[in-house]
UniProtKB/TrEMBL annotation, chains A, B:
Homodimer. The monomeric form is inactive while the homodimer is active. This is Carboxypeptidase Q. PANTHER family: CARBOXYPEPTIDASE Q (PTHR12053:SF3), PROTEASE FAMILY M28 PLASMA GLUTAMATE CARBOXYPEPTIDASE-RELATED (PTHR12053). It comes from Hydrotalea sandarakina. Its main location: endoplasmic reticulum.
Length: 456, 456
């Protein structure tokens, strides 16, 4: 904390007063332009309402690619190209069901709010019906592993509400979604259900990616809404409970997807470039509005605003709509693979993939010197919301590029209290995004990119 | 900006390392307690869904008073009392209507989204029908004053989207809501409609208080939703437009209302007290969830958390649910009047009346020395969201107390990008409030009050 304040003080060693005045004026023009002429909200409406959920491999994803190409051209990119990459093609395959069929000696029919986890394989036709082994965590399963055989294991590991940053709770619970199925299968479980990775007050089920360990049977895996998870867990403490699970997930052959890359060519150092992006794919349950429609339309907004203001960057800029973050990371990997083969050099990468909420700053992974430089810009960005530059950040899609080239990476850090309430659910829709919050995110991103272009 | 950073540096002159550690530990306990045991969200549900909108003088307001008394007792106040004050009793009286009846030569029936302004008097029975004089602002009306006679004047002054803090736009447009009717009446207008005080993307009409200048006829006054305001303004530029306005507002005799005051008695300085509050009344159009149900339940939450943790303040504390902010300010005035007659002395006041969104800090009106002291606590509060202490703030309800006693006053400063989208509309409902955001506001308020109690 002292460090942060210390660096904020170093403004003056880095920028002259005249530079500050010029930058401040430009940033105000940029902000005014985005707030009065910005297209991000309109574009988000198109992406979410005309296309909707767009998992890699789906027809909607291809519609989104063509849409992205069109709107980046319209926004004024010097060139736009599609960068092909093979993507997994998982399909949900039907309407997931989880129904409690027996509680103690009593036959019942209680439907639960459920969604199959992404990349999971469906139940045998007609579903499975089995007793539930409800456990709090992996440790409890380990202690009760002899009870797991033939059962549906239910991991009810909750978000810790005392973490002020909800992302920390998401990080802690993620292992149950990713690995829960194989860990349960190891002990003979026939299916797994998890408590959704959220701390919300509603009952929406949250999907998200899982993976199988090939050493164990690939059992079906699904997530329950929190209210139903609480009920199921309580019932399981009092009596034997039988659950019927029916899911349809399966893979079609890998198919071609595309990163959409819009380019502004640099005036002084065209062979060095800055990458800005978000991911174009989204889960199928909602409209992918915050995750990551917001990042997509903010990326395009920066391009549009720079062109509208006649700003010609020194370095080239890549505005990238990445192909496949959610269930494969193939877009980010392919972008980095191609970049590694080319002579042009990336110097900085920025991603927005934490929702379209009011920006509070950035998380930046880089060395101390660059971090100090970036933090010295806080006073320039603070009028638009950047109060804080944290020392770690970036984004999944830019990760492979950043790791290959060892370049500084930042991620937009919006207010995130609501993010995991709607993340990967049917509630991640256009209506959950506020126009001004979305635009302010774009302004802070554009401001950071402008300063990087000028002073890196 | 430099000043802010400068003061943040002064932490160490003010607090010893041992004090910091003690405070930090207490604040963590406080936050954990609120995030795991907090009642604010449940109480907000009661206030909004069991009672709902609660304008001063209404039966709902009296229900809210009795509810407030009960829940403050349950939260553990040493004593709770009702402080009577006379309040205005304005009633909407019916369903407001604004219908375009003629456009050019064509008879039409186009209903607009409308709400009568609070404290405005209704149209004569059957409504009024008149030509619309659409103007951008007072200057245009002044220039066209000869056209106003017999017309409905329409002030279409918009929120300036380039202000990053929407409250600034609200401040700038407020004069049209408050004074527009009498300024139009001065030139012979028979009614006034204004563009709602908002920058939202929807068409909800925003009510709010207005006042008449007794020198001019008291003409009906209403606000239009933004989409309809845009349309009406555009049509008026192209052709004569006739509007039918029908409103029913009127005053019943002033009636008795109450401030609800919960007290924690100080252990060392019981005759000095800290006042914390929000306002219990709300407009009738919605449920008064953000404005100001949030402030009410946060106030009660602080009391509950202090009691739950066994914290005994040095100074006494008043937790005040003020009676009548929206259309009369009688609650805050009466509280200050009574305080001025008593020998006990207030030392600090805090209000939450800017919505239940994620806290970003406080605005504090006080002298340089006290401001420096308060800013020195930022590092202690920052883990819970307080990044910034601005140099101006407070609240309408605590205003009279603060002005009389010249005491430091702070107002919770939540993220406010969404606030004026829903402010005074039917959209200000429980569902618009996020549980964690609400609780985090209470945590930061409680933390500030704890530090004031300890170090003032």
């Amino acid at each position: 904390m002292r460090k942060k304040i210390f660096f904020a003080f170093l403004l003056f060693p880095f920028l002259t007063r005249a530079q500050q005045a010029t930058d401040s004026t430009f940033l105000k023009q940029l902000a005014d332009n985005v707030l009065t002429q910005g297209q991000a909200y309109t574009l988000l409406h198109q992406l979410t309402k005309q296309i909707g959920g767009r998992l890699a491999g789906s027809p909607q994803f291809m519609q989104a690619v063509l849409w992205g190409e069109k709107v980046m051209k319209a926004a004024g990119a010097d060139s736009v190209y599609l960068q092909p990459c093979m993507v997994p093609h998982w399909v949900r395959g039907g309407k997931d069901k989880a129904v409690i069929t027996q509680m103690g000696n009593r036959k019942v029919q209680k439907s639960l709010s459920v969604t199959a986890l992404g990349n999971s394989l469906g139940t045998p036709k007609g579903g499975i019906t089995a007793s539930v082994l409800a456990v709090k965590n992996f440790e409890e399963l380990e202690a009760r592993k002899n009870e797991a055989k033939g059962k549906i294991v239910f991991f009810n590991y909750p978000f810790n509400p005392t973490y002020i940053v909800p992302g920390r709770a998401y990080g802690e619970t993620g292992v149950y979604r990713r690995n829960g199925a194989s860990i349960a299968a190891k002990y003979g479980a026939v299916g797994v259900v998890i408590r959704s990775l959220s701390g919300s007050t509603d009952n929406n089920a949250h999907t998200g990616v899982m993976a199988y360990n090939d050493s164990f049977p690939k059992i079906p895996a699904a997530a329950l809404g929190l209210i139903d998870a609480d009920s199921l867990y309580a019932w399981c403490q009092r009596m034997p409970v039988q659950l019927h699970l029916e899911t349809y997930g399966h893979f079609l052959p890998d198919t071609v997807g595309y990163n959409v890359v819009g380019v502004l060519r640099g005036t002084e150092l065209p062979h060095q470039y800055i990458t800005v992006g978000g991911h174009l794919d989204s889960w199928d349950e909602g409209e992918g509005a915050h995750d990551d429609g917001a990042g997509i339309v903010q990326t395009i907004e920066i391009l549009r605003a720079f062109k509208a203001l006649g700003y010609r960057p020194k370095h080239s800029m890549h505005f990238v709509l990445f192909a496949n973050e959610e269930n494969g990371m193939r877009g980010g990997n392919e972008y980095a693979r191609v970049a590694a083969q080319q002579s042009d050099e990336p110097i900085f990468a920025l991603e927005s993939d934490e929702g379209g909420f009011t920006p509070r700053g950035f998380g930046c992974s880089t060395n101390a010197e660059k971090l100090a430089l970036i933090r010295s810009w806080i006073p320039l960005l603070q009028p638009y919301g950047t109060d804080v530059i944290n020392a770690n950040g970036g984004g999944a899609d830019i990760g492979p590029l950043v790791r290959h080239f060892h370049i500084p990476a930042c991620g937009l850090m919006p207010d995130n209290q609501r993010y995991f309430d709607i993340h990967h659910t049917k509630a991640d829709v256009f209506e959950a995004v506020n126009k001004r919050e979305l635009l302010l995110g774009a302004i802070n991103m554009a401001g950071l990119v402008y300063l990087v272009d000028k002073y890196f």
